Amino acid sequence: MAVNQSDIEKLAELAKLEISTEAAGATADSISQVLELVDQLQAADTAGVAPMAHPLDAVQRLRADQVTETDQRDALQAMAPATEDGLYLVPRVIE
What's the predicted TM-score (pTM) here? Predict the structure, then answer.
């Protein structure tokens, strides 16, 4: 799968980003190279290879799932500028 310059320009328009013609062409080439690499990886024969959760053969140290901290909700909310029904109120950032 290849990405062409017009695809990048359309995406930039949808994202409300300005992009030069040269940058759009270079970005299209870079993305196309990545997609070619992904196609090569997908073509690799992985039959008989067990799925791995991690590339290293390491064992995670686990700890007991226990509550070790005390509940300080009331003390923390007392320091907050505004709370309501146990929630922190914040100023609206999107109109």
Answer: 0.52
3-state secondary structure of 12: helix
Q: Residue 77 contacts by C-beta under 8 Å, 6 or more apart in sequence?
A: 83, 86, 88
- Of 29, 37, 38, the C-alpha closest to 2 is 29
**CA–CA separation, 30 and 19 (whole Å):** 15
- Residue 10 to residue 19: CA distance in whole angstroms: 10
10-50 residue pLDDT tens: 999 999 999 999 999 999 999 999 999 999 999 999 999 88
Residue type, 72: Q
DSSP letter assigned to residue 49: P
